[in-house]
UniProtKB/TrEMBL annotation:
It is found in: Membrane. NCBIfam families: sss. Gene3D superfamilies: Sodium/glucose cotransporter (1.20.1730.10). It is a multi-pass membrane protein. Keywords: Membrane, Transmembrane, Transmembrane helix. The keyword Membrane applies. It holds the Pfam family SSF. It comes from the Bacteria. Its main location: membrane. This is Sodium/sugar symporter. The chain crosses the membrane at residues 7-27, 48-64, 84-104, 125-147, 159-176, 183-205, 245-263, 284-309, 350-374, 395-415, 427-445, 452-472, 478-499, 520-541. Coiled coil: none annotated. The keyword Membrane applies.
Amino acid sequence: MTAGFEMWDYVVFVAYAILILGVGLWVSRDKDGHQKNAEDYFLASKSLPWWAIGTSLIAANISAEQFIGMSGSGFALGLAIASYEWMAALTLIIVGKYFLPIFIEKGLYTIPEFVEKRFSTNLKTILAVFWLALYIFVNLASVLYLGGLAIETIMGIDMMHAIIGLALFAAAYSLYGGLSAVAWTDVIQVVFLVLGGLVTTYLALNTVSGGEGVLSGFSKVVEAAPDKFHMILEETNENYVNLPGIWVLIGGLWVANLYYWGFNQYIIQRTLAAKSLKESQKGILLAAFLKLIIPVVVVVPGIAAYVMVNDPSIMANLGEAGMLNVPTTDQADKAYPWLLQFLPVGLKGVAFAALAAAIVSSLASMLNSTSTIFTMDIYKQYINKDANDKTTVNVGRISAAVALLIAVIVAPLLGGIDQAFQFIQEYTGIVSPGILAVFILGLFWKKTTNNAAIWGAILSIPIALALKFLPIPVFEPWMHQMGITTLLSMLVIVIISNIQNKGADDPKGIPLTKELFKTTPLFNVGSFAIMIILTVLYALFW
């Protein structure tokens, strides 16, 4: 076992890079006699099939923050972190059945566009600016930082050079091709992502078992660290503040999941690009099933690394490579890169390609959505209302390039963050409750007014900050803060709406019918299957 890359690792990785760039540029080419228009660039000509939507959703979602951050959380606190993945499967079903029909019926390009149709241009602009800031300074910057950290750990390349390399790789095809290039390359990225992740999981478990196989390794991991296999943490657990027991299932995690999967532009955009609503719902179902297996790829390796590090006999067999960049409780995010050192020649290239696929696909998705929001909700609204398709597409490319440049500058400043996945969730959770309150009531309560929505969104920030910094023990878990902030924001919206409209429906309220939410037998059966599997998983690891 050796740290660093051998020739065949470089061959595999370079082949992967050429494949992604080749496919991305090929699907981006302009067809004979047709110049790329806004629908082509931002919504892939509304032509995506279900399997491209499902895989693209996962590729956009699974990034360095999962591979690095969630493995780190697996190392530090165990399988309980998998609640993010398993509850996301259930959330996707809710989004597919109740949110998508409304979004697709309205023919949206962006989520802020829905806000304009339901509420007002002012609120749309407020949220568009917020999302641009969040994508650039939190999402893009954190993915670049974690990706740079991984490359520095595995290959010894300077972090800044690694960050620039990742940025250029993502830009090479996504800026030119738009959502079409992103979505179709995501299909390939997911193959690498899952294959490489499973290879790493196999290696970790096989190492723990002393070469006796995966099942034996898993049994030994459970036996060596039984406290790492509880989904519901007790209050006495030191990690309760991050995953507060039963409240994970019935409290604040629903805020994070519904906001992320239902109202997050870089996630929902590929569902808006579907051939039809039914095709989009089938894609959602595929993504939900893939979500069930993601913890095997990103959480289990972190737990296995914890067992390896704390077993002197295993560490002795790892040789000098095992002593390099060893993860600790204080530096848990080193767990996944540390494991990659021990893969055989060739497979190390596959696993690294998987990590790169996760990073680059998320960067590409975020860039495309950032450019979509800026172009459609800011540029066309305030700067050039009469912009033609050529101008619109060019502005999309330029705005994506500027966003990427800013993120590259900000990324190194995030150094020193441990358990980055938890950090990102916690600080996104300050602003997501107010937005969730606005959308949920805007979609399903016809009395919601524009002024009430604006005040609900604005007041949610001081409410969240007050709950965060008040010295009250019950508010200490940040998931509690998210849940309570959402309820209080909704209460503000309900009170102001009733005062303003005196109980009458708002003129822009959305008429809802049973037919609108009718789903196919395939979607219904698949949804029940997912719920049964989730019940079994939580019963096994409660």
